[in-house]
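ingest -> validate -> predict -> emit
validate: passed (alphabet ok, no gaps, 176 aa)
predict: started
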Amino acid sequence: MPVPLFPSSHDRYAPALRERLGAVIESGHYILGPEVEAFEGEFADYLGAQHCVGVANGTDAITIALKALGVEPGDEVVMPSFTFYATAEAAINAGATPVFCDIDPDTYCVTAETVERAITPRTKAIAVVHLFGNVAPVEDLRRFGLPILEDAAQAAGASLDGGMAGALGDAATFSF
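emit:
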């Protein structure tokens, strides 16, 4: 017996989805087509960010962002110990060493205090993970003078103090 992925939640969107998917199939633009460009612009506007770039997956997004922030082999990236493994994998892909720090048990996010305990002279960036719709205190982390990467895969639409997750740090990644 087949088990539907979303039993009825997408029924009202099915005709529009079929139409758009059909248009993409007919155009042959599966990668970097006009739909991707439109999404990038609309999502950047939604976040209040300057740019949005679509890539293959979340791990690639984090790796690319870390490299863009200047992370190189031999560097360290501080990140929460409570995260999906892709956050650490991306640091390794960039040649860096992930350094784990504790989280706040109420928000499941890092705090300035937990990050501070993990910073060493080799720390090149801080990767925060906004989790379960909770947003890490990016502004509090600015005092360390390090680039901040937001892994916002579980916080699309979340905000903190009027700022949208994904538009608070120096770079951000989402995974849909």
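The beta strands are 76-80, 97-101, 123-129, 148-151, 159-160, 163-164, 171-173.
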